[in-house]
Design goal:
It contains 18 helices and 18 strands. By secondary structure, the chain is α/β, with parallel strands linked by helices. The protein folds into three domains: 114 residues, Chitobiase/beta-hexosaminidase domain 2-like (Chitobiase, domain 2, 2-Layer Sandwich), CATH 3.30.379; 343 residues, Glycosidases (TIM Barrel); 120 residues, Alpha-glucuronidase, C-terminal domain (Alpha-d-glucuronidase, C-terminal Domain, Alpha-Beta Complex), CATH 3.90.1330. The model has no long low-confidence stretch (mean pLDDT 96). The protein binds 4-O-methyl-beta-D-glucopyranuronic acid.
Length: 664
């Protein structure tokens, strides 16, 4: 097969269209949209580039005589950022009410053509599920990436910016999956000399915001809550202090004078060493609202993260529970945040584990704008070495019934703004990209990049359809291999879960690095472990008799989780301390389940590799080789997890494996 240009990922027009040309000429015409608009220009450029490869008759301004014409028409009845497409043999119409809708419609046409759909068969009627669809980079100004597994930053190096063709390709790719907001720097904002809200960076930030704007994307920045101290020389950053308030007023004025297109800021406060309002006895709403007031004149928004917890808690106390923190800190403030504040809530109450319950804050808040945060950077899910397609997990989160309303109560309803009737809402992902030529290190991890955007735009899509779309845009596979790869992706999360931490307990991972097993590994101190295993059993009692975390949900869910008989089994150890000899639903004991799932998970990781190897002929050689290498590492990792977890629990429980397998 032709070598694909992986730096273009799913937008490799050369590769995909080389065999499908016709003699037609083509035209692109506008009705109601200005051709001079920056986003319309981008849409036109993309269409023209693709059509000039497909239709050898070339571009013509004579619409009537064009073999293929595209008409882009303004129709107010379509919702913001939505589009409708209809076509016959010679004419295709994209309707939209705004420019982003046009651009998304254009990419829909292009992706359909790339996937082999005939011109006349392209049809669509789409409106985005979520108003905000964002990527969060954890890129540092020195070029490193916190939790980055694909090389270094493609935005920054040595405290300087890169803005080049790759940046433009990145923006094009993001637009092609419906992303409309990007935070370019890490939420851990350190080293005042490189804060992006200073004169030193205004030109570059502005240039990048302009480039993003060509693709309907707003640029956002992370900021350090203590900037008034670190940049302004003030003694405090107390959100109720007059000097602090006026410092931020001036700062945002200066920022917006220089970067008028800025969307706003993302803030991590009072978390893992970051400064915040707690230092001054203030609450999270005091902090967020102070910034929100200062940014309001510029229509900016403040995205305030709910990942607030005390990482030095003494976990030996059985009532202490990190999982409670988000709800404990924020529920009481429901309704107190200004309208240009959005609370960004991680999908689970802990931290992006392979299995967690949905955060009780999602829908638990009913008078506050909220956004779902997920992570496609595979911090706890295999570092883009192990295959772990995350859309099935995200779908579970979106489909979860919070019971905040009788109808429209799923997480998808809440974060889209439908349930609570608000516009400042949506989804964000901690992104998995870097400066590796293929963007995501492991070629197959691009499925998560593509998938997140698609899902944020349309939460109704299935994990399977998204996987198939991505595969068709990325590879040239026979139907049989396409199905094989779809199924590999769909199984991969469950496989990873099986050989790592069982039944929702999470963690047991090397502290700080978060790859590979360390059953007792505990991040922040010598105190305790997250799993609370003893010689009788394992798991955290989060019921009303334990930490009381289960009671943070609405009664329907609280009752379900509180009772170990009704608690979904995949979360059993998250909510309950269970004896090793307790029988699970299928009759196996807990300890036997742990042994079996670890053997099975490792064996299935080997199966994934076998499946991959069987597709060699249809995969470009460098892609094949790199992914083989990752699978080899994955298998080694799975073996290590299997052996460490099994032997740990064998030694704790003293109960041997019924099947007599080697447990080292
Ligand atoms: O999971 C933790 C990560 C930190 C990260 C933090 C967060 C950016 O280990 O690296 O910091 O989450 O979400 O703020």
């Amino acid at each position: 097969m032709n070598d694909k240009n992986w730096s273009k990922l799913w937008l490799d027009y050369d590769k995909k269209l080389s065999n499908e040309q016709s003699e037609d000429s083509f035209s692109v015409a506008f009705d109601g949209f200005s051709e001079d608009h920056r986003i319309i220009k981008s849409a036109k450029n993309e269409l023209t580039e693709v059509f000039s490869k497909l239709f050898k008759g070339g571009y013509t301004t004579e619409i009537e005589n064009a073999g293929k014409s595209v008409c882009i028409k303004k129709t107010d009845e379509i919702k913001n950022e939505g589009y409708r497409i209809s076509a016959d043999d010679s004419k295709l119409t994209i309707e939209a009410s705004d420019e982003n809708g046009v651009l998304y419609g254009a990419f829909h046409v292009i992706k359909s053509l790339l996937r082999g759909t005939g011109f006349a068969d392209i049809k669509a009627d789409e409106v985005p599920s979520n108003p905000l669809r964002m990527m969060n980079h954890w890129d540092n100004m020195d070029g490193s990436i916190e939790r980055g597994y694909s090389g270094r930053s493609f935005f920054f190096e040595n405290d300087n910016f890169y803005i080049n063709d790759r940046t433009r390709d990145y923006a094009r790719m993001m637009a092609s999956i419906g992303i409309n907001g990007i935070v370019i720097n890490n939420v851990n904002v350190k080293n005042a000399a490189s804060y992006l809200i200073t004169e030193r960076y205004f030109d570059k930030v502005s240039e990048l915001s302009e480039l993003f704007a060509d693709y309907g994307i707003k640029l956002y920045l992370s900021l350090n809550f203590a900037s008034p101290i670190e940049l302004g020389g003030l003694e405090v950053c107390d959100p109720l202090d007059e000097n602090v308030i006026s410092w931020w007023d001036k700062k945002f004025k200066e920022v917006y004078e220089n970067v008028p297109l800025l969307g706003g800021f993302l803030v991590k406060a009072d978390s893992e060493g970051r400064p915040g309002p707690f230092t001054y006895g203030r609450n999270q709403a005091d902090g967020a609202n102070m910034l929100a007031k200062a940014i309001a004149p510029y229509n900016g928004i403040i995205i305030w993260r709910c990942f607030v917890y005390n990482c030095t808690q003494d976990w030996r106390d059985y009532k202490t529970d990190r999982a409670r923190a988000g709800y404990d800190y924020f529920k009481g403030l429901d309704g107190e945040f200004l309208d240009n504040v959005i609370l960004q809530i991680k999908n689970g109450p802990m931290d992006f584990q392979i299995r967690e319950p949905v955060s009780p804050l999602l829908g638990g808040l009913t008078k506050t704008n909220q956004m779902l945060e997920v992570q496609i950077a595979q911090e706890y899910t295999g570092h883009q070495i192990d295959l772990c397609y995350l859309m099935p997990m995200f779908k579970e989160v979106l489909d979860f019934h919070t019971h905040c309303k009788s109808e429209g109560d799923t997480v998808a309803d809440v974060v889209s703004g439908r349930a609570l009737n608000n516009k400042n809402a949506g989804m964000a992902a901690v992104i998995n990209t870097g400066d590796d030529a293929n963007w995501t290190g492991n070629y197959l991890a691009a499925a998560n990049l593509y998938g997140f955007g698609r899902l944020a735009y349309n939460t109704e899509l299935s994990s399977e359809d998204i996987a198939r779309e991505w595969i068709q845009l990325s590879f040239d596979l026979s139907k049989e291999n396409e199905e094989k790869l779809v199924s590999m992706l769909l199984r991969s999360r469950e496989i990873y879960e099986k050989y790592t931490s069982p039944l929702g307990i999470g963690w047991m991972v090397t502290p700080h690095e978060h790859y590979g097993p360390s059953v007792d590994g505990y991040e922040y101190s010598r105190w305790g472990t997250y799993h609370r295993a003893d010689h009788l059993g394992l798991g955290v009692d989060r019921t009303d008799k334990g930490t009381g975390y289960a009671q943070q949900y609405y009664p329907e869910n609280a009752d379900m989780y509180n009772d170990s008989d009704t608690c979904p089994e995949e979360l059993l150890l998250f909510f309950h301390h269970i004896a090793y000899d307790r029988k699970l639903k299928d009759g196996r004991t807990l300890i036997q389940y742990i042994y079996d799932s670890h053997f099975e998970g490792e064996a299935q990781a080997e199966e994934l590799y076998e499946n991959w190897k069987s597709m060699e002929k249809e995969i470009p050689s460098e892609v094949f080789a790199l992914v083989c290498h990752r699978f080899e590492m994955q298998i080694a990792n799975a073996k290590e997890w299997r052996d460490q977890v099994n032997s740990y629990f064998y030694r704790k429980s003293g109960i041997p494996d019924e099947k007599g397998r080697d447990i080292f």
